[in-house]
Amino acid sequence: MKKHITSALLCLPLFAHAGTDAAVDCQSHLSTWMKTLHPGRQLDTEHATCKVWPADPSLTLAVQPLPKAGNTDDEGEYDVEVLVADSKSGAIIAHAYEAAAISSDAIRFSQIDLDTARYQLTPQLRAFGVRVTYEGASRVNPYEAQALSLYVLDGHTLRRVVDDLAVENNTGEWDGNCAGTFSAITRTLALGPANSAGYATLRVGETAKETVSKQTSQDCVSTDRSLKRTTTTLEYDGTAYRVPKALHYE
Question: Exposure winner among 104, 148, 187, 207, fewest CB in 10 A?
Fold first, then answer.
């Protein structure tokens, strides 16, 4: 996701009815969080998501897209709130507001997912991810992409430390029946040794594949060709891991 981030601490007793031993049902309270942070704004309930953080079940993570005025069913921009809340009380511990973070037009955004893989950046800081999936509308020119951003809860501040790393990119051109060429790029993150600041390096492994389909007299035959595998290392610069333009989702 893109644009400006702000962070704030809100310790509001949103869910006084929650028992001391009962975790908040986050899905049922997405709209309450939105009313607290942005009174009067509409929440895109279809794409909003939340989950208890497996690394720390006392915390709940949420991503809330807010459609901008003038959006249509086919296109528009979305502001986004990423937040961390107390799982028992529902109190918002920290949040990051990102203006115009998602655009949806001919390439529309179709899904948001929380990624709670083991991104242990320092002994004290563990990141979580937000994955945004985009899809194209053309049948004969299929397109799907996914961007990954990582966030850390640093005290009472939620910081984005990886911005829109393109982890999936699938494109193609075909005749709608059989003949065509398709390409698929997949990138994965692995943790490397810590740098002088104590932050782990991030190793981005990339695999690429090309598929060619041809119509024979009897069948549609597809042939895969694996392309070169590459690895890129991202170093923490004191603020974030800067994603090279070639790996950044635009």
Answer: 207
pTM above 0.85, yes or no: yes
pLDDT in tens, 104-142: 888 999 999 999 999 999 999 999 999 999 999 899 999
CB 183 within 8 A of CB 215: no
Tell me whether residue 154 is in a domain. no
As a whole number of angstroms, the distance between CA 51 and CA 181 comes to: 38
Token pair in block for residue 236: 């923490």
Same domain, yes or no, for 117 and 233?
A: yes
Q: What are phi and psi of 144, to 5 degrees?
A: -145, 135
Neighbours of 204 (CB within 10 A): 21
Integer Cα distance of 200 and 123 in angstroms? 10
As for how many domains the chain has, the answer is: 2
What CA–CA distance (Å, rounded) separates 230 from 62?
33
Phi, psi of 246 (to 5 degrees): -65, -20
